[in-house]
Amino acid sequence: MEIQEQVPLSSLTTFKVGGAAQYVIHCGNVEDIKSALAFAGERALPWYVLGGGSNVLASDEGYAGVIIQPMLTGIRFEEGMEETHGNSSSVSVTAAAGEAWDPFVQACVGRELWGLENLAGIPGLVGGAPIQNIGAYGADVSQTISLVEALDTVTGEIKSFSNAECAFGYRDSIFKRTAQYIVLRVIFSLSKNAAPHTSYADLTVYQEKNGPLSTPQEIAAAVREIRARKFPDLRVSGTAGSFFKNPFITQEHYDVLLDKYPELPGFPVEIKEPASTSSEARAAVKIPLAWILDKVLDLRGHALGPVRLFEQQPLVVVAEKGATAHDVDVLGKEIEKKVFDATQIVIEREVRML
User: Fold this and answer.
1) Where in the sequence numbering do the catalytic residues fall?
2) What is the pTM of this model?
């Protein structure tokens, strides 16, 4: 266990902004995490678990508490645990929370395992994947997770969560809604059988230009190429990727908007409230917020000082050198107001505040 003091949060997050954390503790195993929790408790300090920092906006005031970084590593492919059902074959893959996400994806597609290829190129660590229920190009990670092992910070015990117990929602999970559990390991069920999902618009266009995508390696490479055009270079600029969630509205609301914006895309979905134990779902329409930001509000590249909406993908907020968390927040609030004024839609931020 390594304890550091007064560490700039700008060095721990991909937004590259934020003041100093009072303490940062790097934890290589479960006992280190328990010791870090005890360290915070002994000093009556709050604590916050921070992995790759790819979905966090850290305050300019810093964090007067303990930042816990679980850096557990290890990937296990249980080839002997393959289960064959009819003509489908699944392989159990266990990855520790501290493994970098994209290299983990590459390790899986390199073995010709299907399930994670559409999620290639996403920054961050494996431990953050179930918390945020990361998704891209028509896939959510919850579609492949069979089990999540987490430390219960109240009891000190390690608890296993089935897929259903994770209560996954759109960019949401039980781990995001409570700080009680710290993700340690994630167990994925991947397939050896071909299961390409390439109907997402960007992948369809890619195939029209470059030919069919028939292997997980090819899809992962295509996704990385597409993402490289839509997201700024993290080596140069700060960003947390998509800053806002795509909104879900009622059919009635969508019909009203269609009268005003006849080309507004909308995708009918069934939504089950994440916290609900009921099996009932409600009908809704998913709206691509980027379309509103671009076609309705003409906000591609819109800037306030050193922060702006990315020219290639207006859902992405970019922070240049000298930007502050306050600058990002002000731009975010401006965008929220503009969207509401034009559509009466209240949009939510995908980025977590620290």
Assistant:
1) 171, 242, 350
2) 0.89
